[in-house]
Amino acid sequence: MTVTDQDSRMWTARLRGAAVRALPPDRLLPDRQPSYVASWIYVFGVLTLSALAVVVASGCVLALKGPSWWHTSNVGLFFNSLHLWSVELFFFFMVIHLWGKFFMAAWRGKRALTWITGAVAFITSIATAFTGYLSQQNFDSQWISTQAKDGLNSVGIGAFFNVLNFGQMFMWHILLLPLGLGALVALHILMVRLRGVVPPFPAKGEQTVDEVTHLPLPTTNGSSAHGNGKSAGPMTKEVVK
Amino acid sequence: MTLVAERPSAPTRAERRQARRRPASWQGPYVRYDIVKEFVIALVVVTMLTVALAAVLSSPDDRALTVSNWAQADPVDFATTAISELDGSSGTAQYGPPYTHVPGAGQKIGPIGLQSFAGVRTPVDTANDFVLSPLHTVAGYQPALTAALTQYQSASADQQGKWTSAYEDAVKKATFGPTGLVVPPGGYGPVGTLISAETTMARTGALDGYLLSSKQFYGTDYTKPLLFLADGSYLAAKAQSEHLHGNQWGMMNETGRYPGQAWLWLYTMWYQIPPFSTSGNADALIWGIMLVLTLALICVPFIPGLRSLPRRLGVYRLIWREHYRRVEAR
């Protein structure tokens, strides 16, 4: 067996090879999109991601100082306000993004997993926000927890997920659910890059395009854009094919 | 010598598998699209918007209520709740799983009782946890209270029931004066002394300390004090004044004029309409409905009819109007 053969049989090499084959750099971070990607609705995906970044950043500052800090400090209250409003914006953008993708039937063309990861991320976000409300240690937390317990208890979940237990809810809010949400969002974005943006329904008389993606990426000279090192301009609508 | 073109090598199994998984290529035109620049601009805009909203609107932070607040603001309601904890008629005592063993308690979806099935995982003995045990911690300084505790705990269950029933009737006409709780005389034996001492203990804040204490030095579990607070009407009255009750869309609201958890609108909506607004199994039924709807949302790509709805609605023609204009002009 040659050295090359031995190298190619290594688990590490195989994993790297599979990853690069599935998502080469220019598919992971493309500078071209199909011409149909031209609507304001596409902005709401990246707005959702941006709001999530602000949620995480403001949450990290609150975590640095502990759960009681923001009740006694004006700076703390401001960071809590940043956390609250970024969550509100996050959900606002995410719901529009979700409706937009529904109206596009964005699961077409082997994109079901992209839809599923997005929908599960939406549900996980609701759970994360809910545990955040329970972790505030104020009247809202008291009332929400004493009311929400009935719903969770009624289906047996409350026996294991006790909303009246601040320590348990706090750990779910700052550790378990963010980890899950982060993984789901990462998987969702990877699926978008892997499968591409869903194409439009075919126009009258047009061949079906449900089963297409947008790779390989053509360049101005008609060749594949993969690995050619050319950079594109910012968000221009110039048709390059 | 004849040159023969080399036959193309057959695709490997991995290549065939990858080809099957990957949809065909888009054959139409492409445009430049700088997603990194788009993300950076979006991040700056969202950050600025968040800072502006936080600076102008701040965030709500109404102080948490304590048992001491409650006993000082409404001592008669506190005493009424305390006697219901002692005789086992309070909301928590009659709740069933996961707090108490109550035959037949627990909500059901049709014949299915998931609440009972999960069992009692957070046991609460309201008489001991909320009344008798806290009083024992202060009884050493009060001989009358020690005697009352001994008399009550050594009596038969039947006798205890007669005393607590008599006190429940009497406390409805109770007042609170400079000397403490004033309850009309009645045949309630030592119970008057117990509840009066409990009320005094609560007003000083000692009961908060007891309920928050745990078997170890540090504690983060507020289950018992929250259940006790929720059994009274003081917490609910404040929530009503803040428009937070279940029939006021309270699940999605928060104190003040803030948007709250607006994304819970669908869940909250069910509580406003019959039969859920009047059903004893409302929580279980609504959770069942929401579970089905959530699964439907996740499985949209596989549900015939639902997955075809976007094509029928035609909103996509608005989203891709430039594309269709270009294609149809060709």
Characteristics:
A: 241 residues; mainly alpha; 9 helices; disordered C terminus; B: 330 residues; 17 helices; 54% helix; disordered N terminus
Topology:
The complex is a heterodimer of chains A (241) and B (330).
Chain A: H1 3-8, H2 11-22, H3 25-28, E1 32-34, H4 43-65, H5 69-72, H6 74-103, H7 112-134, H8 139-154, H9 166-195, E2 212-213
Chain B: H1 13-21, E1 24-25, E2 30-32, H2 35-57, H3 67-73, H4 75-87, H5 114-118, H6 126-139, H7 143-154, H8 157-171, E3 175-177, E4 180-182, H9 191-204, H10 206-212, H11 223-231, H12 234-241, H13 265-272, H14 282-298, H15 309-313, H16 316-319, H17 321-329
Antiparallel strand pairs in B: 3-4
Helix pairs in contact in B: 3-4, 3-9, 4-6, 4-8, 4-9, 6-7, 6-9, 7-9, 13-14
Structure description:
The complex is a heterodimer of chains A (241) and B (330). By secondary structure, chain A is mainly alpha-helical. Chain A has nine helices and two strands; from the N terminus they run αααβααααααβ. In chain A, α4 (43-65) runs antiparallel to α6, α6 runs antiparallel to α7 (112-134) and α7 (112-134) packs antiparallel against α9 (166-195). Helix content of chain B is 54%, strand content 3%. A two-stranded antiparallel sheet of chain B has the order 3-4. Mean pLDDT of chain B is 91; it is low at 1-8. Chains A and B meet through β1, α4, α6, α7 and α8 of A and β1, β2, α2, α5 and α11 of B. β2 of chain A pairs parallel with β1 (24-25) of chain B, so a sheet runs across the interface.
